[in-house]
Amino acid sequence: MSPTLRKGLAGILSAGLVALVLWWFIPSEEQRIRKVLEQARASVSGGAKPADGLALLARVGQLTQCLTRDVEVQVDVFGGLSGNLNGVDEVRAAAAGLAQQFPALDVQLSEIQVGVLEPTSARVTLVATLETGGRNGRTAQEFELRFRKWEGRWYISRVSTVRALRSR
Question: Tell me, what DSSP letter sits at residue 103?
Fold first, then answer.
């Protein structure tokens, strides 16, 4: 094999290896959106821990890091809970109240579908299963979320209820 051919094959193999490593270690936009969703989910799930003041502030702070300042939330949850929230301050207050009212709240996300993914916006639908730890059991709810990308990071800019699925 000639040295030129050897160098060419080595160059192609090296470029392929670099591309594979970059693909493996650099997350896609969809993976970045899923990471924001997981951060938001973890911040509203309290587990079985009591909601002491410092832990509550940390969880609410973690949630607000996932939201735009002008976030809009329009929910109509199965069982009668409904309302509109405008802005991160209203969401922060509602999240703190929810965490105090349901300290054992557990939220699980499933059926996550990133529908429209553009350079600076995305639309996601998902099913959130809520377990309050009370006698009402579980409630599954379908939501549509709008994301905005700002300075290289994805933020939730709108949350709206699609429909209530079931209550057990």
Answer: T
DSSP conformational letter for 85: E
In angstroms, rounded to a whole number, what is the distance separating the alpha carbons of residues 3 and 57? 64
What's the full length of the chain, in residues?
Answer: 168
- Cα pseudo-dihedral 33, 128, 159, 157, rounded to 10: -20
Run of H or E residues at 161: strand 153-167
The HSE-up count of residue 55 (CA atoms within 13 Å, CB side) is 13
Classified as helix, coil or strand, 109 is strand
Closest to 38 (Cα-Cα) out of 128, 166, 117: 128
Alpha carbons 47 and 32: distance in angstroms, whole number? 24
The H-or-E segment that residue 114 falls in is strand 106-117
pLDDT for 14-61, tens place per residue?
777 777 666 666 778 999 999 999 999 988 886 655 556 677 778 888
| Top CATH class, 28-167 | alpha beta
Output the pTM of the full model.
0.76
Closest alpha carbon to 158 in 90, 72, 89, 85: 72
